[in-house]
Fold this sequence. Notes:
- The chain is an alpha+beta fold and 317 residues long.
- It has one domain (50-314): Jelly Rolls.
- It contains 9 helices and 13 strands.
- The protein has a 7-stranded antiparallel β-sheet. The protein has a 4-stranded antiparallel β-sheet with strand order 6-12-8-10. A two-stranded antiparallel sheet has the order 1-9.
- It starts with 7 loop residues before the first helix and ends in a 41-residue tail after the last strand.
Amino acid sequence: MNTATLTRKEARTDLYPSRGGLKGNIVPRNHPTVWASATTQPPVERSLVEQYERDGFLVLRDIFTPEEVSNLQAELDRLRSDAQTVERPEIITEKGSRQVRSIFKVHALSEVFARLAADQRLAGLASYLLGDDVYLHQSRLNYKPGFHGKEFYWHSDFETWHVEDGMPLPRALSISVSLTDNTPHNGPLLVMPGSHKRYVVCEGETPPDNYQMSLKAQETGVPSDENLTRLAEMGGLVDTAGPAGSVLIFDSNLMHGSNSNITHLPRSNAFFVYNALSNAVEDPFCDQPPRPEFIATRENISPLDIRKNSADDFRPS
């Protein structure tokens, strides 16, 4: 793997400025989507790698067996039940209610999800696409209960991770494991294919402790209506619905969001952000302190020990 790190000067050069008085704009992305060497054998069909490079995302079905999904669902339910009775910063509730929206740093709260994060079907693919050893920049469970799950507005993760966390380059990706059926109707992730090849400069300043609001409802780092319209007209809109056990992989710079869930069908996913070890975060590219460790890893950055798991490894203790 290419584990050469950026120099301090390279890491502190703001190659993707946003906010801070800049005017909203769409500019080219100047770095690859797939960082693997052309001679490295991919863990999936090469046509899927080409599709990922072109569209910025992949939906892979039947990656996890029904037994594995059942065990992961049991752990999902256990953590949600615990979250309703304790107060801790990793637990994010819906705006204006006590409904659990997300649980962050779930790999540190659950051995089951720590094993899932390091599973070769996820971390191995991430390491290949990023051409490097990988570490977890972030992990979380996203709950979107029937009737009450709220939307996640359009955004590029990299814009936030760059500005607020100090991630130098878009050499990161997210993998979401469907733990319930994601249908076209219960608020699945919507994406703009090809949008990952353009960086959207957002307007406005970064407020102090912005994460306290943005994790409930993102209002900073959101593209203008005009730029969202331009991106949608370039590549269209696609939902990423898939049954429980399917996996969504998407580039850190892909424009995405999701609607509220007004159906009776819950939509819950395990979500892992893999960053290249050579792309470790530095100081934020805004005039604010770093976000807390439970949102963005910076204190204990080390490569994942990628492993092969079985259904028993996902059984709650």
